[in-house]
Amino acid sequence: MLVACLTGIALFYGGMSLTMGFLTLLPLFWLSGLISHVWHPPSMGLLGNLFPDRRGFALGFHGTGANIGQTLAPLAAGYILLTTSWRGTFFINMVPLLVAALLIAIFLSPFNLNTPQSKGTKASSMNFFQPLLTNPLLGATALIAGAATVGHHGIIAFLPILLVTKHGASPEWVGICLSLYSASAIIP
Q1: pLDDT in tens, 29-58
Q2: Is residue 151 part of a domain?
Q3: Model pTM greater than 0.70?
Q4: Is residue 119 in a domain?
Q5: 8 Å CB contact between 9 and 35
């Protein structure tokens, strides 16, 4: 699943680099985001399985790595945009994704998350909405996390537009600003 997700994202990025208009770009962009979110449950399950006694630390380290990646990516994209178009930037972005997929395929040993569970636990884990409906704190947490994600994606989408249209920022400055925004989340 991890290899398939990374490869899929890379292929959608390659497809986006070849699109001829917004209506063909939009579904590929959406699908790349969908596959990106499919990546997280298996990766977190793997970390929980590999580090059962230090699960919180492993997930925190995973989150810090993601924040570092989100800090470096816009910086790199901003400088790549100085030498190539947005299409070329998407195409170049395929390379680290395919390399990561290849390294995971080669070095990650198979793992099994099918640990024995009681009948009640297995039945309740099959129903996604039941815990959200029966536990108001979990439901509220999910709503807050969703709102925070929408806000984050809004800033990522519209801050570059503001910086370019109102302040005349160049691609490298947009990359630096987005990197600083993402870097602010590394320590917390």
Answers
A1: 888 877 877 777 777 888 888 898 998 899
A2: yes
A3: no
A4: no
A5: yes
Full residue range of the structural domain in which residue 42 is found: 2-111+128-183
Count Cα neighbours of 46 within 13 Å in the Cβ-side half-sphere: 13
Q: How many domains does the chain have?
A: 1
Per-residue pLDDT reduced to its tens digit, 99-157: 999 998 998 776 555 554 444 444 444 465 677 678 888 778 777 877 777 777 778 87
User: Nearest-CA neighbor of 156 among 185, 135, 134, 126?
Assistant: 185
